[in-house]
Design brief:
There is one protein chain. This protein is mainly α. The protein is built from 20 helices and 2 strands. The longest helix is centred in the middle third of the chain and has 31 residues. About 45% of the residues are buried.
Amino acid sequence: MAHPAPEPASEDLLRRLAPQVLGALLRRYGHFDAAEDAVQEALLAAARQWPEEGRPRNPRGWLIRVASRRLTDQLRSEDARRRREETAAALTPRDEFVAPPPGEGRAPAEDDTLTLLFLCCRADLPAAGRIALTLRAVGGLTTAEIARALLVPEATLAQRISRAKRRIRTSPSPFGTPAETADREQAQAPEQEQEQERERERERAARLADVLHVLYLIFNEGYTATSGRELQRADLATEAIRLTRAVHALLPDDGEAAGLLALMLLTDARRAARTGPDGSLVPLAEQDRTRWDRDAIAEGVALVSDALTRTPLGPYQLRAAIAAVHDEAAGDEDTDWAEILALYEVLVRLVPGPVERLGHAVAVAMVHGPRRALDLLAALDDDDHLAGHHRLEAVRAHLLEMAGDRAAARAAYAKAAGLTLSTPERRYLQSRAARIAE
């Protein structure tokens, strides 16, 4: 039943509901490709009908009902029905599956999204495919957005997604969160409880790193969009935080899940101060810190402090600790860059990736001067992942400006501006170049 007054089909709402609906369909039918197509058709139907007829009281149930109808229509032929049954048999134990009525899920919406998240990050999928598929199905990113986030060609990314879907379609293993999988086995064979616990730990370890990495990428795309007129996509950042909370609740003793949640909260706390009234980018050093979310900062600091004291050290905890040092400084001039550099030194030993090394170079510049940091950047010029990426040139420009090399800094800012697809970032970089020229 719809509300009397029509409500628009909110793009944010549809993006948030899409993985929940897909997860619900996969629980019932399997057949990833067909289910994904059916969900997209249901979302299009909602975008057409809800503005005229009003938003349903249960938008998720409406979408599941419409998508289920579309999916059963697709699978009506005998050959399609046979493929559906084979996939369902492969994905779900025979004594566990009972199809619920249309519009109702066997598990809560949160569980459906988590199930989809862990399905896409199964250990039997190639790591690159896991990440790409999850960003597409759970994060709602386009193929082009994912390719930019992962620094790979779009055609390569599309192939990874297709291969991952084929692997899911033909794989005999069940899907669900690691805890769900172990619970099923426990119910079927109680005498094997110890072995099931070991299997649960292996399953968790195999999937969790990719799950957290995907959530981190979704958050990053929301916090700083790789393209478009807006600097931030708050819906994506908020959804990444929600999903990370759910993973942390599922695995409360995992330090890296806590560390990632802390990192997101500490970073997202600055959201309101990152843009001016006209949507322009405001760099960290110039932000009005009275606009930062102090409750989010307090929660993030508590999370990472607890994780650092009782769990093995990991990269997300270190990143969160760095963010906490920034957030706890009263002003930019009060930032403890020596502590940040010490944290980066540990981080780049654990994860010597290009993004981590860029951050390390900035910290080196703040402690030891820009010339030493520029030498570190020179080693990144041949990095395949950073080739043609604006962030390397933007950092180089900043360091050159610090070193007093105005002409080189201006050229680097201009080059960085020409490489980014984000309008606010491009305008900011252009303004830096223009300010140096004055």
